[in-house]
């Protein structure tokens, strides 16, 4: 093939409900707020098979006030779950970078759950393109 | 004719073009997107250069008569010829070719003589690719010429299409830094290039941060540079600005290959950058665009212009500026003898082949423009006929110069339109759906309302088919009415078509080189006459 | 399948109370369970599903991984070090295999 087209027909994509279900399971019902969490990913993926994603949460990371967990979701993948990361006060800061697969252009979502149960959310659209032809 | 030309050029003199009342204490000289054009060229600026979203109607998305009006330029004047497509053929005959690195050297040397050590020469990249000789020498001719010109730093884009090993070899040999704050090693996520350099000029500390083309591994073959990851990485630029200020920078300059709209957005979001020297989108603007106290400078392409930006920097801040976009009229600015000799030397082994005539053209040949250019019409025609295809695709590169009607098409002209390291012409079957997906994908790279999602090329050119495009429609729904020209039938998403194209980013693409395919076609078509291209209709 | 080889980058030394950056990689195909072989049969899922980093026996950071994590899982995270000691990194495969590696840090 001359142009590689990501994904493909006949693939069962995750539904909005799947993503909402995953969010609910993580938050335990708390409404996600904005702020404190920053999701960073490239605007356009260089390779849908390995897309860097970073999450940073503003937290003192002390025994009394820390980020318990971060969940990363890709709402346009066959299954929205990417990873759930667990921090401790020994993490020093709640920062993580990993690499994920994105089947097509979609929103990537990050949620942070604090030790007091409050939840913060950020999202970013990542384009997965055919590539080439520009210049 | 000669008489008109001589008369017009009397109004121009080297002194008038280059003299400038010196201002302030520091001068930045910027060249970018030279695309290996050692000799003077004709380069027609675009007639269609649409902006979408917030930048609709703003420079550089202003062309032709609107451009002349916006900048108060007299139609038919040298500036009108240099900056717009209006009356291009006639004005080209009047004012002649532009650029040539020997003329650029004259300009640079004169500024250097005036400003002494208070000057930085910065190269925005796309310097080493775009000609027959650059391709043959894998960039060595340009490296030799640029080293003689003496830039203080550069960044890059098409440079990377020589592959990681060659780039590393050439960069290691440079007597100045190749900066790329946004290039990371793909495995351990660590900086792969020097991100910035601090210079001291005229008592001013100048931090120059380099930004390579963020989408190099997407717009060009990733397999050639598997170990490097790019991206806009706005947060890194912001961090470098902070770092530079903390280290005592009085002036912060971003030497950028982002493309104009990306840089405009970046300037609005990252504080503390005094000057962005933009590149990649090949725009030439006679005045800086000012965003959030940042001066955005657009210095054109192909050696047509040299930017001179005089700055008054005092007490750690930029207090004022004076700017001149210097048009390099090749018949007016005398070539620098030393540089001319060097250019002759690097071209000597190829000179006979470069001058070989392939055909003549009755039609003005050019490429630049959002949707089509006659040079690509010619290429598409060659692809359709030589490769017996239903549909031809030609990439929307912004490089490639112009050939005037009545002139010969030489080997040099042909290669200037297609000199690259992945020239294979493929011939394959694609469903109507895949063809549509490709057009939609490229359209979004050009017209996404958020500049950070744009790649800065023009639309892929088509042969054998027509379509309607609505630039402001949503991603995935801009393209309609795709039609096969031969039969007048709509393109069927479920049917297969024979498609021929070139410059695929996929490894192991097979087929003859594009220049061989076009040369074969020119042999059968010794006089090129192209009809008006009506294959793209713009809606909305 | 090639052996899963873990690699880590940990500073050799730090000052007490520093927050240091740790990088880890393990070679692994992360077979998602979504793909089919040439005959059209589904290729069974086989991924690293758990990654853990401890310091002197106490957990610093861990992750539950889903099939959308890219091949050769990469993690970059931080750790606050108050004493010299040893980081232990553990990766758990769907097939029950456990891969580990260690890195010592001198804190003064
Ligand atoms: Mn360019
Ligand atoms: Mn470029």
From TrEMBL, chain C:
Domain Sulphur oxidation protein SoxZ: 9-103
Superkingdom as given in the UniProt entry: Bacteria
Name listed for the protein in its UniProt record: Thiosulfate oxidation carrier complex protein SoxZ
InterPro entries for the chain: Ig-like_fold, Ig_E-set, SoxZ, SoxZ_dom
A Pfam family annotated for this UniProt entry: SoxZ
């Amino acid at each position: 093939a001359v142009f590689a087209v990501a994904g493909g027909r006949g693939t069962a994509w995750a539904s909005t409900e799947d993503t909402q279900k995953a969010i609910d399971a993580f938050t335990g019902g708390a409404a996600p707020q904005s702020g404190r969490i920053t999701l960073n990913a490239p605007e356009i993926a260089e390779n849908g098979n390995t897309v860097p994603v970073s999450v940073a949460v503003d937290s003192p990371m002390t025994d009394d006030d820390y980020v318990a967990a971060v969940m990363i979701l890709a709402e346009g993948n066959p299954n929205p779950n990417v990873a759930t990361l667990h921090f401790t006060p020994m993490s020093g800061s709640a920062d993580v970078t990993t690499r994920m697969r994105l089947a097509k252009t979609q929103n990537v979502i990050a949620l942070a759950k604090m030790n007091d149960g409050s939840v913060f959310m950020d999202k970013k659209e990542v384009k997965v393109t055919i590539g080439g032809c520009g210049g | 004719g000669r008489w008109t030309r001589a008369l017009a050029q009397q109004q121009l003199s080297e002194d008038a073009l280059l003299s400038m009342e010196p201002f302030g204490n520091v001068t930045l000289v910027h060249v970018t997107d030279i695309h290996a054009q050692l000799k003077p060229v004709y380069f027609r600026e675009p007639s269609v250069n649409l902006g979408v979203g917030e930048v609709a109607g703003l420079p550089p998305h202003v062309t032709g008569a609107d451009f002349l009006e916006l900048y108060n330029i007299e139609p038919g004047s040298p500036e009108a010829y240099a900056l717009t497509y209006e009356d291009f053929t006639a004005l080209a005959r009047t004012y002649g070719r532009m650029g040539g690195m020997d003329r650029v050297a004259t300009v640079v040397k004169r500024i250097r003589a005036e400003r002494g050590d208070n000057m930085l020469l910065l190269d925005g990249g796309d310097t080493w690719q775009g000609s027959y000789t650059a391709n043959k020498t894998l960039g060595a001719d340009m490296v030799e010429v640029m080293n003689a010109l003496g830039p203080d730093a550069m960044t890059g884009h098409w440079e990377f299409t020589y592959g990681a090993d060659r780039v590393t070899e050439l960069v290691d040999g440079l007597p100045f830094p190749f900066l790329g704050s946004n290039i990371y090693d793909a495995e351990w996520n660590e900086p792969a290039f020097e991100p910035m350099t601090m210079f001291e000029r005229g008592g001013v500390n100048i931090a120059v941060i380099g930004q390579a083309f963020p989408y190099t591994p997407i717009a060009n073959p990733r397999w050639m540079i598997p170990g490097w990851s790019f991206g806009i990485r706005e947060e890194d630029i912001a961090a470098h600005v902070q770092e530079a200020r903390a280290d005592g920078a009085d002036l912060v300059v971003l030497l950028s290959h982002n493309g104009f709209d990306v840089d405009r957005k970046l300037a609005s979001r990252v504080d503390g950058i005094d000057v962005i020297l933009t590149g990649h989108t090949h725009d030439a603007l006679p005045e800086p665009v000012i965003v959030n106290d940042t001066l955005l400078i657009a210095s054109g392409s192909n050696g047509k212009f040299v930017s001179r930006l005089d700055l008054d920097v005092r007490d750690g801040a930029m207090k004022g500026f004076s700017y001149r976009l210097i048009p390099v009229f090749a018949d007016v600015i005398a070539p620098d003898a030393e540089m001319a000799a060097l250019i002759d030397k690097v071209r000597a082994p190829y000179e006979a082949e470069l001058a070989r005539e392939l055909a003549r053209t009755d039609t003005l040949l050019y490429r630049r423009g959002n949707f089509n250019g006659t040079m690509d019409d010619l290429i598409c025609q060659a692809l359709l006929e030589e490769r017996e295809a239903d549909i031809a695709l030609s990439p929307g590169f912004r490089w490639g110069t112009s050939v005037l009607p009545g002139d010969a098409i030489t080997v040099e002209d042909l290669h200037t339109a297609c000199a690259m390291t992945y020239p294979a012409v493929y011939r394959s079957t694609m469903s109507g759906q895949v063809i549509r997906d490709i057009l939609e994908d490229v359209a979004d790279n050009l017209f996404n309302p958020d500049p950070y999602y744009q790649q800065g090329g023009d639309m892929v050119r088509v042969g054998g088919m027509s379509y309607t495009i609505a630039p402001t429609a949503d991603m995935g729904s801009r393209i309609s009415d795709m039609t096969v020209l031969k039969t007048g039938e709509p393109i069927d998403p479920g049917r297969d078509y024979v498609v021929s194209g070139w410059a695929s980013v996929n490894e192991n693409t097979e087929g003859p080189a594009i220049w061989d395919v076009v040369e074969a076609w020119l042999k059968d078509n010794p006089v090129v006459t192209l009809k008006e291209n009506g294959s793209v209709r713009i809606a909305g | 399948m090639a052996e899963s080889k873990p690699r880590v980058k940990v500073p050799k030394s730090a000052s007490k109370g520093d927050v240091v950056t740790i990088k880890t990689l393990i070679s692994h195909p992360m077979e998602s369970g979504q793909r089919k072989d040439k005959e059209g049969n589904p290729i069974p899922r086989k991924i690293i599903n758990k990654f853990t980093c401890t310091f002197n026996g106490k957990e610093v950071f861990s992750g539950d991984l889903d099939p959308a994590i890219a091949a050769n899982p990469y993690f970059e995270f931080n750790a606050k070090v108050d004493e010299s000691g040893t980081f232990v990194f553990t990766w758990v495969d769907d097939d029950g295999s456990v891969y580990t590696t260690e890195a010592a840090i001198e804190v003064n």
